[in-house]
Design a protein that fits this description.
about 150 residues; alpha+beta; 5 helices; binds coenzyme A
Length: about 150
């Protein structure tokens, strides 16, 4: 499968909106929030996955990660996250935080495989289903510690 993975741009609006109904999340709108940026996976111009981050230099939160059901289990999420972590590392050393439903075995296995470690738990965090959130984090070592430029496009 030939995939293009790159940072999302504001002018991607229509492409990004195409997935909002299945993801239940308006990526185009979320990208307009300060401190937000995303990596997208495209297959022939069709958006098939994304990961959205928010934060400031050195401290990032994974806000949403989603791969279209037809394209799951083909390494798309791993490639998206690996590209995003590489991009983060280019800006200097950073800590990436995330939370995940304790029952989301797919995402937990993915994040552990990417080097995230457990950092805590929030009881009953997800009201729907009354599930705990597992907190995870990973330190990304910077390739170029003093670059310091903010991400573009979000
Ligand atoms: C979680 C999600 C992003 C994974 O996307 P994906 O592209 O299918 O994941 P990948 O193919 O890159 O999988 C990478 C690794 O994650 C783990 N993984 C992914 N899906 C899995 C599943 N259904 N069961 C168990 N492990 C799974 C495996 O370790 C896998 O490596 P392997 O295929 O070599 O065994 C996708 O299932 C999704 O969009 N789910 C709904 C939204 C969601 O839960 N997002 C995360 C919120 S925190």
């Amino acid at each position: 499968m030939v995939l293009l993975i790159r940072q999302a741009r504001l002018e991607d609006g229509e492409t990004l909106r195409g997935m909002s109904h299945i993801a239940g999340f308006d990526l185009a709108k979320e990208l307009r929030v300060g401190g937000a940026w995303a990596m997208v996976a495209l297959r022939s111009e069709e958006l098939i996955g994304y990961v959205l981050f928010r934060g400031v230099l050195g401290e990032w939160d994974v806000i949403n990660l989603f791969v279209a059901p037809d394209y799951r289990r083909r390494g798309v999420a791993r490639d998206l996250m690996a590209s995003a972590l590489e991009e983060i590392g280019l800006q200097g050393t950073a800590t990436v935080h995330l939370d995940v439903r304790e029952g989301n075995e797919a995402a937990i296995a993915l994040y552990h495989g990417l080097g995230f470690s457990d950092s805590g738990r929030r009881a009953g965090y997800y009201r729907k289903g009354d599930e705990d959130a597992l907190l995870m984090k990973r330190v990304v070592r910077g390739a170029c510690p003093d670059k310091g430029a903010p991400f573009a496009g979000g």
